[in-house]
């Protein structure tokens, strides 16, 4: 279920802590919470797609490696993709 696309040009870090979704846009945070609650009532779960935009490329500790390591350490995670990933 796709319920919103969030485009953040600039954000304030304080807004990340203002809601349980850690979304910097209060309106989209509310939509996300409503959608999550609706799915939870049905006994289902949701997933998400995050596009990280960064400048530069470090030699060590690349963002993709850290994201994969962190995400795949969660027992419920069954996949993690980069680029076209699973779509091929």
Summarize the model shown:
The protein is mainly alpha-helical.
Key phrases:
about 90 residues, single chain, mainly alpha, globular
List the helices and strands and how they pair.
Elements: H1 13-16, H2 26-41, H3 63-72
CA-CA gap between termini = 21 Å
Please tell me the overall pLDDT: 78
Major beta sheet summary? none
What amount of the residues lies in strands? Answer: under 5%
Instruction: Please tally the helical runs, counting DSSP H or I stretches of 4 or more residues.
Output: 3
Please, could you describe this protein's structure?
With 88 residues, this protein is mainly alpha-helical. The protein has one domain. Helices cover 34% and strands 0% of the residues. It has three helices and no strands. The model has no long low-confidence stretch (mean pLDDT 78). Pathway: Metabolic intermediate biosynthesis; chorismate biosynthesis; chorismate from D-erythrose 4-phosphate and phosphoenolpyruvate: step 7/7. Its EC number is 4.2.3.5. One of its GO terms (molecular function) is FMN binding. It comes from Artemisia annua. Belongs to the chorismate synthase family.
